[in-house]
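::Amino acid chain::
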Amino acid sequence: MDQTERFPLERIEEIVKHPENFRMLERIPLTMPGMMEHLPIKLQDPQESDTIKQAVFLDTETTGMDPASDRIIELGMVRCSYSFERRVLLSIDKYYDEFEDPGRPIPAQVQELTGISDDMVAGKHFDSDLAAQMLNGRPLVIAHNARFDRPFFDRRFALFKDLAWACSLAGVNWDALGSSGKKLEYLAQSRGWFYQAHRAYVDCLALIWLMHLEPEAFDMLIDSALRCEYRLYAWQAPFRVKDDLKALGFRFDGNRKVWYRGFAAQNEAQQILHQLSALFDVSACEIQRFNAANRFKG
């Protein structure tokens, strides 16, 4: 069905009479056909006091969920300028979107979800030089699920594995902003906007629009990137202390077979480590520091 056929034009009179019974969705302007031909796109005017920094919004479409065995089939990056002091996006400066042949058939469910077929990626490869231009100056990389996208990206582009990353899924308190869900498509729709989801650079543009409309969310996102966190790993903790660990707020990572707990400050982690020393040999335990450079790595 054509998009224009989905809008109930025959019900306009009813909508006008009872607008409280209807909600309208509008296409995100940045995702309209031809918009990227007008770069740079100004979102706000810079001020004289601004320190202007760059961010690259990044999204991947992949053959599956495992970065060790699956491959990126589409990479989208959109480079923006923002005011560090005011925490607002200023402009969209350039974009990158390319396919790459994974060397194997794309699973049917992935083709259905993304609309990306084997024919679309056949014989294609990412241009590393163009990707490097997008990342020139080591901008902050922003993804809506960095824990997913970063391991794929770092594996494919090892030269850029030490960039600073931020995650708009984990780094924004969407509950505080009135959102019960965190999926990008839901966040847009609940605010009256729609777009063609599951295409890499289009997802980037949708996230940029969301951050533009809600500077409070962008402020939270930048704060999360600047924040340092600490995690205490209780390696080789004996089974008999599992209840003690739970009582102290530890969680168990079934894949890595380790108990862990996060902390805002290093001294807090050290205090808990001291408590654990009364329960078992903590020589194998460790405290790791996380910041934007190593957060969300696989």
